[in-house]
Amino acid sequence: MRLNFARSAALIAIVAASAAATQVKAEDVEVLHWWTAGGEAAALNVLKENLQEQGIGWEDMPVAGGGGEQAMTVLRARVTAGNPPAAVQMLGFDITDWAAEGALSNLNDIAAEENWDEVVPEALQKFSKYDGNWVAAPVNVHSTNWVWANKSILDELGIEQPQTWDELIAALDKVKASGKVAIAHGGQPWQDATIFDAVVMATGGPEFYQASMIDLDPEALGSDTMKEVFDRMTVLRGYVDDNFSGRDWNLASAMVINDEAAFQFMGDWAKGEFLKAGLTPDEDFLCFRFPGTQDQVTFNSDQFAFFNQGGEPTAEQVALAKAIMSPEFQSAFNVVKGSVPARTDVSDEAFDACGKKGMKDLAAAASSGNLFGSMAHGHANPASVKNAMYDVITAQFNGEYDSETATQELVDAVSIAQ
Ligand code: BGC
């Protein structure tokens, strides 16, 4: 906790300085985002170029740090200083929290003109709208319950794609015995939580995920099933390398890309890194759902929210929202980013095998009641609850709590955070 405060204070100082130094021209649109890894930056370029073609300048405000925690701290500082950026990449409940503060522009006119109600799935509209008004434009749908695997390591060791927890553990054992790293992981709270999302789903099933991660039912949070989830996290902890602490997610992806590690459990932004490295799905790497979650999708959606600059949205904000929502852009961007379109009417033609599977899985999960907001990525509960869960998950993953203590800590932390 203390560390978090220190980091926040440092960030606020940096932002205050950079905010003062930044002179944004009227026709530029300043965009705060955390897309700084190779695949992310490549996808962002698709958006930048789209705007440049319309004669709108791009004032970049990148804040490195996967999952966006640092970006949200910087945003808070900018708003407090009375200088919010025009457009901000945001996730789930962060959007509704800012909308509740009255900070976001109303996008109803452009949404009506372009028929967003018809093409954006309900699950996303829950976050793009506040009080019935459009306040954000969704750029994609990511999902967090993916495994990224190095195909040549698996082939060499005779490992089949694991379908169950036991098969997964058998596969991890084989990799460990070969001297390679079994799980490429970066020990940062949001990455630990990303794995936790998948383990909760795999261990307890969709009803348990709903009860514990979304409804915050104290019985589910404090159950034997949750204890088993923590036990499984401890098992997985035994397969990461010694240098995992603090490693950025894209460096963990690089370990799989460079034949150092067999598996990474990560959202499909990881695919952006594999593609950027020139690799091809099914030939060089495999993408499949975390064993035991084959029918489920835990999703998050990057959306752009537009901070009120005093009145109606500016012409540049509207142009950015329009660009984001165009079907052509949604295809071009998501092909590079690893995510899938936030519109239901975009063809999967341009997408690779993982993208096609992602689109199919999403549609199937949505229609069978198997689509759930990702806790780790702000789509299950507001940041206060999410961060309370992060603290327990990370402490347990690092051996601070046994599974029984962690289960009780989770119940307590969530109850205090609500
Ligand atoms: C975002 C992705 C991003 C990832 C890692 C997630 O929360 O939704 O767009 O690539 O964090 O930075």
Structure in words:
With 418 residues, the protein is α/β, with parallel strands linked by helices. It has 19 helices and 14 strands. It has a five-stranded mixed sheet, sandwiched between helices. The protein has a four-stranded mixed sheet with strand order 9-10-8-11, with helices on both faces. Strands 7-12-14 form a three-stranded mixed sheet. Strand 1 (28-33), helix 2 and strand 2 form a beta-alpha-beta unit. The longest helix has 26 residues, at 189-214. The radius of gyration is 21 Å and the shape is globular. The structure holds beta-D-glucopyranose. Beta-D-glucopyranose binds at residues 34, 40, 66-68, 91, 142, 249, 269, 300, 302, 377. Beta-D-glucopyranose (BGC) binds next to loops.
Structural class estimated from helices and strands: alpha/beta
The number of domains? 2
CATH architecture identity of the largest domain: 3-Layer(aba) Sandwich
- The gross shape turns out to be globular
Radius of gyration: 21 Å
Q: Report the CATH C-level class of the largest domain.
A: Alpha Beta
